[in-house]
Amino acid sequence: MGSAKLKIGGAWSGVLEVELEEWTVLMLREEVAKRSGHGGGPETINLICAGKLLKDGDGTEKLSQLGVRNNAKILASRVSVDQGKSVKEESLAEEERSTRLSRLKAAAVSLSARHADGSLPVEDFNLELENQSGQKVQLGSETDQRAIMMGLMLHANAKALMRKKKYKEALEVLTMGEEAFSLCDQKLIEMVDNVPILQIDMVWCYFMLRDISWLSVAGVRLAKAREGLERSHGKEASRLRLLQKGRYPEIALHLRLELLEGVVAYHSNQTEKSRKSLTSAQTKFLQLQIPDEALSLLLGMGYKERDSKRALRMNNQVVENAVDFLVEEKEKKARKRVDDLKRQKEIMEQKCYGTTPLGKAVDIERLNELVSIGFEKELAAEALRRNENDTQKALDDLTNPEANSSIQIHIESRKKKRLRQAANASIEELVSMGFPREAAAAAIRSLGTRQAAIDHLLQGTSNTAAAGDHNVDNTLPNDQGGDGIANEPLTNDQSEDVSGTNAGSSSDGGPSHNKVETRDVEMEDEITGELLKGDAYSDYDIEVMEEGEAINEYLALITVGVNVEIGSSS
Question: Where is the UBA domain (predicted)?
Answer without folding.
Answer: 289-329, 361-401, 418-460
